Amino acid sequence: MCIINMTEKRIVGRNMYKVYFITFGCKVSQYETQCIRSCFESSGFESVETENGADIFVVNSCTVTGSGDSKSLYAVRKLRRNHPDSVIILTGCLPQASDNIEEKCMEADIITGTQDRKNLPKLAMEVIAKKRRIVEISDYGRHDDFEEIPFSAPFTENGNTRAFMKIQDGCDQFCSYCIIPYARGRCRSRAMNSLRDEARRLAESGYREIVLVGINLAFYGQEFGLRLVDAVEECCKVEGIERVRLGSIEPEMISDNDLLRLSKLPQFCPHFHLSLQSGCNATLRRMNRKYTAEEYLTLVEKIRGIFPNAAFTTDVMVGFPLETDEEFKESVAFVEKVRFAKIHVFQYSPRKGTKAAAMQQIPPNIKSQRADRMKSVGEKLTANYLQSLVGKIVPVLFERENSEEFHQGHAADYTLIKIFRENSKKSLRNSIFYVIIEESRGDHCFGRIIDQEWR
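-> structure tokens emitted (455 positions)
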């Protein structure tokens, strides 16, 4: 820790401190960083895009994997070396789930968890004024409410056409490998009126697509007697919102009635990121997952029957404790059987405090070999899926010009589509056009516009 040497700077009721943000982890963390940024800006701070000249640094951490911990702590230590007189804030999942974080990260002036982050500007000013360190990490209760963090600008990835909206937090599942229930608390949902208000603000700001995200998104609304489809329907009612997309969802929480209701929503994007983790039942049991491979496949086939153009993506873990060669082969065969459009492959990483960390571990070289094999299968599946789209006509929301040569955007199934700019010199950003797909290449497809703007 450094007892900072800054003095208070205020001009006409506005402090002139500059704040730089670093984010690790998932879309939820990135959304929350944007909310924290808004809190600082509304309190009179100036957010900056480069660390040079910044007075305050906010590191929003991740603890899903051991490498996530390391990256977050390294970032704080590097900032302290490069900016010895700054205020450094470590917040997010790592402090919430870690024992003795105040001793592990002495370089941070302020340490908070995943609660009360709207108070960070006030804490920063307190550190500056009183020259003292602050560590505030509150424990979660069973019946905590969803934390509303005011924001002025949403989190986007693509030049203000697609906005992310956090509607759920926490997890009750306690998978044997996962630390997140300890970092995020129990499931809790955003109130419907708050969700509706944000969707309207996004539409008024020109956004045409909303992506609903959460820590365990499929459990949205359970404490209110609602389901995730209720949130989707509410967003689809907002004038100006042309697309509503879901983040990662748990397969056991999707009912037949949910699917039928979703099928009646023209704005709903049939891209299902169904978390798998393993295609082997023995491994799934050790993971404490709540479904079998057979149940997962039945759901996929049911969705395909209702949404013929649906795309399925997933996460697959390799090298889970006690995973045998036969179990791994079973998982590979299952992935091939489902015919995913894309899979995210990652190696199991022990997390202290979880049941899996006490199990017999797989040697690193075996985990690496299995990851390479699964990634190779995933690449072939992606190539097959993209090739299957050639000749189809799809509406594409164009997000930006990739270069002087291409426009690019995404189809409803989240396939990346590019068209040559010579077909249209003007910007197509935030417009939806019908495109015929003519070629697949790598991780995307090429096509050409065949009709006027979709809507």
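DSSP finds 13 helices and 21 strands in the chain.
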